[in-house]
Every structure is written in structure tokens, then in C-alpha cells.
């Protein structure tokens, strides 16, 4: 592997690693889950959405029926609402299990890819010099720059990866400190007032939604 290619490859790998660390493995997994559901049209997600719409509609209809004057109709609608709510909770539970498994898989794959590539590059090139430095500039620490087995007077793959990692992390932290306050600044336009919900949801369904 050519030295120039090594320099660029290791730097890109560490930059990607720092970017993923900054965003968060969990956040990336959640974004990929949303994309996966949108592309594949996840049946469980669609079923849950349809059940949710049905519950909202049934609640609206139930509010228009008097439990005293039209008790038979009200009881029938209430049983139907309870049945749909039960299906909704089951669909939500199944979808949550599938989502957790997907996010765990994505998390493991990302970590295996990053750490696996690091390990392969270091193991395969542990004796190779990434580049050489003037001996009179770094004489006291030449042994460290070539750690573990690169030629003396050179920078090893391990040390170059470590340096790239530290630089990328510092850059990511700086951008995070600068951009986060800007993103959190309030806008000049007042937020629209939220209208009160049409119907109050039951505790179990509210927790599920």
C-alpha cells in the first residue's frame, strides 16, 4: 500500500469515525430505520399507522354518542374501540421489537466496520512507514513516532492514525461548540400556538403512541 494512499485512507477513516461519534451511533441507526421504513414500506409500521387513524376516528365518533340516551350504540362503539386499541398496542410492541433489533444490528455493523478497518490497516502495515521526518527535529521521540515496528525516523501507521484521530475529534468538538449555540438560538417568529387535542387519550394508548 503506497504511503500517500495510506495517509489519505487513514485520515478519511478517522474523520468518518469522528463524524459518527459526533452524531452518535444510536442517532444514525434511528435515521436509517426511518429511511428503511420509507423505502420498504414496512407492513407493521403501516398497520400501526392505520390503527392509530382508526382509533382517532372512533374516538371522535364516540364523543358524539350519548352513553345514556344511546347506550347500546355507545357500548358497541366502545367495544370496537377497545379491540382496535388492543391491536394497536400489539402492533406497537411488535414494531418496537423489530426497530430495536434493526438499530442494534446497524450499530454493530458500523462499529465492526470502523474498528475492523482500523485493525486491518494497522496489522497489515505495522512495519510500514507512512512518511519520514527529519531526525534532528524529533530526535528525543523518534522511537515513539515509529512505534511499534516502523523504520526509525519515520511515522508509523499506528501513530499517524492516533494523530489523525485526535485532530479530527478536536475539529468535531470545535464545530459542535460553535454550531450548537447557533442552532439553539430562538427565531424572530413566534411559534404557532398548539391547539388542544380533540379527544383525551386513555393512559395505555397515550403511552403507546
Descriptive account of the structure:
Helix content is 71%, strand content 3%. It is built from seven helices and two strands. The chain has helices spanning 3-23, 25-40, 43-63, 71-124, 142-145, 157-183, 203-208; strands at 129-132, 154-156. Strands 1-2 form a two-stranded antiparallel ribbon. Mean pLDDT is 81; it is low at 187-209.
Briefly summarize what is shown.
By secondary structure, the protein is mainly alpha-helical. It contains seven helices and two strands; from the N terminus they run ααααβαβαα.
- Count of helical segments? 7
As residue ranges, the low-confidence spans are 187-209
Principal-axes geometry comes out as rod-shaped
**Order of adjacent strands in the largest pleated sheet:** 1-2
Give the amount of beta strand, in percent. under 5%
Mean pLDDT value: 81
Structural class: mainly alpha
What's the SSE pattern?
A: HHHHEHEHH
> What is the makeup of the main sheet?
2 strands, antiparallel
| Helix content percent band | over 70%
Number of strands: 2
Q: Tell me the span between the first and last alpha carbons.
A: 53 Å
Radius of gyration, whole Å? 29 Å
Attribute tags:
209 residues, 7 helices, mainly alpha, 71% helix
Secondary-structure blueprint of this entry?
Layout: H1 3-23, H2 25-40, H3 43-63, H4 71-124, E1 129-132, H5 142-145, E2 154-156, H6 157-183, H7 203-208
Antiparallel strand pairs: 1-2
Helix pairs in contact: 1-6, 2-4, 3-4
Amino acid at each position: 500500500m503506497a504511503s500517500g494512499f495510506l495517509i489519505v485512507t487513514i485520515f478519511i477513516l478517522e474523520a468518518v469515525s469522528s463524524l459518527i461519534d459526533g452524531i452518535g451511533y444510536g442517532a444514525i441507526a434511528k435515521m436509517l430505520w426511518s429511511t428503511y421504513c420509507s423505502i420498504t414500506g414496512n407492513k407493521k409500521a403501516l398497520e400501526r399507522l392505520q390503527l392509530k387513524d382508526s382509533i382517532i376516528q372512533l374516538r371522535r365518533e364516540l364523543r358524539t354518542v350519548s352513553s345514556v340516551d344511546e347506550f347500546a350504540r355507545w357500548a358497541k362503539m366502545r367495544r370496537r374501540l377497545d379491540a382496535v386499541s388492543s391491536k394497536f398496542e400489539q402492533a406497537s410492541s411488535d414494531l418496537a421489537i423489530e426497530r430495536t433489533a434493526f438499530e442494534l444490528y446497524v450499530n454493530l455493523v458500523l462499529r465492526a466496520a470502523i474498528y475492523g478497518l482500523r485493525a486491518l490497516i494497522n496489522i497489515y502495515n505495522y512495519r510500514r512507514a507512512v512518511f519520514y521526518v527529519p531526525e534532528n527535529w524529533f530526535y528525543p521521540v523518534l522511537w515513539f513516532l515509529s512505534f511499534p515496528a516502523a523504520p526509525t525516523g519515520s511515522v508509523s501507521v499506528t501513530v499517524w492514525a492516533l494523530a489523525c484521530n485526535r485532530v479530527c475529534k478536536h475539529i468535531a468538538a470545535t464545530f459542535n461548540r460553535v454550531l450548537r449555540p447557533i442552532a439553539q438560538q430562538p427565531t424572530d417568529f413566534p411559534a404557532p400556538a398548539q391547539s388542544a387535542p380533540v379527544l383525551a387519550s386513555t393512559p395505555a394508548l397515550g403511552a403507546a403512541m
